[in-house]
Write a structure and sequence with these properties.
Largest sheet: 5 strands, antiparallel
Helix content: under 10%
Shape: globular
Radius of gyration: 20 Å
Order of helices and strands: EEEEEEEEEEEEEEE
Structural class: mainly beta
Distance between the termini: 48 Å
Strand content: over 45%
Number of strands: 15
Number of helices: 0
Strand order of the largest sheet: 1-4-9-6-7
Length: 192
């Protein structure tokens, strides 16, 4: 990502991999934020897009503002879409949608922010991704002698998903398909 000042930089504290984006804010309230701008994204609308990332904070009063910009070098074009409170001393995954955004910006940006005077705060961001997918955090939920249940989290106006499953190493398109509406769990009970 590009940035407005020397405050965001790569760091060796990471959720996964070998580096993450470190953002820090310090001093008085005039210098209480740091902004990182993602590369230009070509799309017609942001309203069906989602951003996910892992965040790590060092204070309990620090935030990441997810926003959109029309001009990557002009911070005054930053429009906040969602404000996220970072966890203090641990990694947590966040997902934000752009359903409420009605502008024409093509630069997604993250702004680290605190509201403390004469403080030095840091945050780390890792595994940033942009997608059309409303489903995230897919996980094993439970297992019994006949089957297994999977669960997932959703964002936006989620209405349903098609799940396909089959024997080990099956080819996508040849498995059993089920369409799941307005639920966030599914049980495969035909296992043997």
């Amino acid at each position: 990502p590009s940035r407005f000042d020397d405050r965001p930089y790569t760091s060796t504290r990471m959720y996964i991999g070998t580096a993450s984006l470190n953002m820090h804010a310090y001093g008085d309230l005039n210098y209480n934020h740091s902004t990182a701008v993602l590369p230009y994204i070509e799309f017609d609308t942001l309203q069906n897009k989602y951003i996910s990332f892992w965040g790590y904070g060092t204070r309990d009063v620090s935030y990441i503002e997810v926003g959109v910009m029309t001009e990557p070098n002009d911070e005054s074009t930053f429009e906040v879409v969602k404000r996220i409170t970072l966890p203090n001393g641990s990694w947590k995954k966040f997902v934000a949608d752009f359903a409420s955004y009605t502008g024409n910006g093509n630069y997604i940006a993250l702004r680290y922010y605190h509201n403390c005077n004469r403080c030095y705060y840091e945050a780390w961001i890792d595994e940033i991704s942009i997608s059309n997918c409303q489903i995230h955090n897919i996980r094993h939920y439970s297992t019994n002698t006949r089957g297994t249940t999977i669960a997932w989290d959703t964002v936006g106006n989620y209405s349903g998903v098609v799940i396909e499953f089959g024997p080990n190493n099956f080819v996508v398109g040849t498995g059993t398909k089920d369409t799941i509406y307005n639920q966030t769990t599914f049980t495969i009970d035909t296992l043997s």
